[in-house]
Amino acid sequence: MKFFVDTADVAAIAELNELGMVDGVTTNPSIIMKSGRDIIEVTKEICSIVSGPVSAEVVATKAEDMIAEGRKLAEIAENIAVKVPLTWDGLKTCKVLSSEGRMVNVTLCFSANQALLAAKAGATFISPFIGRLDDINLDGMELISDIRQIYDNYDFDTQILAASIRTVNHVRECALVGADVMTAPPSVIKAMANHVLTDKGLEQFMADWAKTGQKIL
User: Fold this and answer.
1) Could you tell me whether strands 2-6 and 103-109 are parallel, antiparallel, or unpaired per DSSP bridges?
2) Is 155 exposed, middle or buried (0-12, 13-18, 19+ CB in 10 A)?
3) Residue 109: per-residue pLDDT
């Protein structure tokens, strides 16, 4: 499973990238706002750090304007994936941009039917939002499973990019179900390394080592 980082924090991206934990980056208007930086400037810097897909989202709502914005964003770097919302105009935009050979990430997906439409429109990635479904007492992981089965049934090339990941359990469940990609904040990716028994075991090892009076260096 590929790991995308859901942030525009360049320092956090660089740190994880050095560890080989970054296969791509996702951003959205809210993430750009939090960065406090110009969208073109920060996206260009991210693309210089990461070799994999970097999602940059359009903000127009009409297909004609979305297409123009998408083409503008795609000029930033070769690894840009233009991000569009799963609306009818977004699907029109996806079809045009994907036909031009551009990567397209269709976002804000909340149903298997929506995911099917995105695949038919040539989406490179479909981004189902797990956490937001959980927030309204629906099963976000069930959606990932449904999309996986549909895409496998018909050999769609569109990659399932599990988004709105809030916990390390979300990551594990996505891997078990077969999501192609997951995108999460740096804090969630780092938290995957944590386990109380690891901490307890290390504490015991250090205590026993101290008793030996030895040093390695």
Assistant:
1) unpaired
2) exposed
3) 98
